[in-house]
Specification:
- Strands 7-6-5-4-8 form a five-stranded antiparallel beta sheet. Strands 1-2-3 form a three-stranded mixed beta sheet.
- It has 142 residues and is of the alpha+beta class.
- The chain contains three helices and eight strands; from the N terminus they run αββαβαβββββ.
- The protein has two domains: 70 residues, RimP-like superfamily, N-terminal (GMP Synthetase, Chain A, domain 3); 55 residues, SH3 type barrels, CATH 2.30.30.100.
- Helix content is 23%, strand content 41%.
- The chain starts with a helix and ends with a strand.
């Protein structure tokens, strides 16, 4: 099986960075999604290029056991924040946070260090440890 370090190296050679991976099921089909980012942004052509590079490698050393479909994607404008590096890379952005106690808030991510974020919400600063967060994502007001 292809390990994550190998995937990261291949993506870097393609000029992109690994944001996250996800395995989902849709209509009884497993989908292995690799989310990529780059400073220049992610285009459909870039996703297709990465897919063409990874597909033959995964034919020999699959990332999962059994059948799956490979999907290469941008994490999107409203992307999940699941790792400390996601929070660090999102400083200054608007984020939506759902806490373990089900409380929800939207604010600007002002700081992140020692696994704690500082969110500016309604003219006040709220300090939230990562352990208190059920879900978080960047937020875009349409």
């Amino acid at each position: 099986m292809t390990n994550l370090d190998t995937i990261v190296k291949i993506l870097e050679e393609c000029g992109v960075s690994l944001y996250d991976t996800e395995v989902t099921s849709e209509f009884d089909k497993r989908i292995f999604t690799i989310y990529i980012t780059s400073k220049e942004g992610i285009t459909l052509d870039k996703c297709a290029h990465v897919s063409r590079i990874l597909s033959p490698i995964f034919d020999v050393e699959p990332p999962l056991e059994g059948e799956y479909f490979l999907e290469i994607s941008s994490p999107g404008i409203e992307r999940k924040l699941t790792k400390p590096e996601h929070y660090s890379a999102s400083l200054g952005e608007k984020v939506k946070v759902k806490l373990n106690n089900k409380e929800k808030m939207i604010g600007i991510l002002e700081d992140f260090k020692d696994n704690t974020l500082v969110l500016h919400v309604d003219d006040k600063k709220v300090t939230i440890p990562l352990g208190d967060i059920e879900k978080a994502r960047t937020y875009f007001e349409w």
